[in-house]
Design a protein that fits this description.
The protein is α/β, with parallel strands linked by helices. It has one domain: Alpha-Beta Barrel (TIM Barrel), CATH 3.20.20. It is about 30% helix and about 15% strand. The chain is built from seven helices and eight strands. It has a six-stranded parallel β-sheet with strand order 1-2-3-4-5-6. It has a two-stranded antiparallel sheet with strand order 7-8. Strand 1, helix 2 and strand 2 form a beta-alpha-beta unit. Helix 1 packs parallel to helix 2 and helix 4 packs parallel to helix 5. The mean pLDDT is about 95.
Length: about 270
């Protein structure tokens, strides 16, 4: 059975990954993938915004690196994409990025619940201890819903990233989840099943099975993601992700080309 495309992987340009794109592609070929996609952390309008993404002047270099992987592995379909942080007020910047290259898809992710706190940053885990988890999860899902509503992204990334360090709210979050899935369905955004959570404190795929079931019930399509930051992480735990998708009811997933979606059997 062919593997679904791994649509979420990084490069050294983001300053916290190792291995060149052609090495990731070589690993994908070894594993039997027919299609992958690179979606490194996009530049921000200010290069000093944080220290875990490429700079603006590196965007063309990123595209060149992906092009080299394509030329080195002509039998592997390799998509060109970006993982872009959604922050309210940054929409014009995202549109500007969209016009620069022939992207295949954008992954919209929420890392920041304020302009200064990226809630998944290990260096800032102390911020969690100053806040009520439900307030943080509420802010996170509000922004995730706004990202879906914006129609700027084909895929929403790691949809319950707020669980990374195991700070869970005691309150019922059902309404937060329902609003997000309603927005994703209306805008046509897909949701990724991201296996990187299995390598984090939460030891669980992003998102939790309950959210995958809600996504299926809401009619939200899916993609698959290793969120690889090293060649050895390409396709990691895809068997578990596929099992999760099928257990929730999914029989197909998405692939993208030039920001157009195609549904393919799982």
């Amino acid at each position: 059975m062919p593997l679904p495309a791994d649509y979420h992987m990084h490069t050294p340009l983001c300053r916290h990954a190792i291995g060149e794109p052609t090495e990731y592609a070589a690993q994908a070929v070894r594993l039997g993938f027919k299609e992958i996609g690179f979606s490194d952390h996009s530049p921000m309008a200010r290069d000093d915004f944080d220290d875990w993404r490429m700079r603006q002047d590196e965007l063309d270099t990123y595209v060149e690196k992906v092009a080299k992987a394509r030329s080195d592995h002509p039998r592997l379909v390799i998509k060109l994409a970006l993982e872009i942080d959604y922050l309210p007020g940054h929409e014009d910047w995202i549109r500007e990025l969209a016009a620069r290259h022939p992207w295949d898809y954008f992954i919209g992710s929420v890392h920041y619940v304020s302009d200064s706190w990226d809630l998944d940053n290990p260096k800032k885990i102390s911020e969690w201890k100053k806040r009520d988890p439900f307030e943080v999860w509420s802010a996170y899902f509000e922004r995730l819903t706004m990202a879906a509503e914006s129609r700027l992204f084909e895929i929403i990334g790691h949809a319950d990233l707020a669980k990374k360090f195991c700070f869970y709210p005691k309150e019922d979050c059902t309404q937060l989840f329902e609003r997000f899935f309603a927005a994703a369905k209306k805008s046509g955004a897909a949701m990724e099943l991201n296996t990187a959570g299995l390598r984090k404190d939460c030891k669980e795929i992003y998102p939790h099975r309950r959210l995958v079931e809600m996504a299926y019930a809401s009619g939200v399509p899916i993609t698959f993601a290793s969120d690889a930051h090293a060649p050895g992480e390409v396709g990691m735990n895809f068997a578990e992700a596929i099992h999760l998708a099928k257990a929730a009811g999914y029989t197909d997933c998405c692939r993208f080309s030039r920001r157009q979606r195609e549904i393919v059997p799982l």
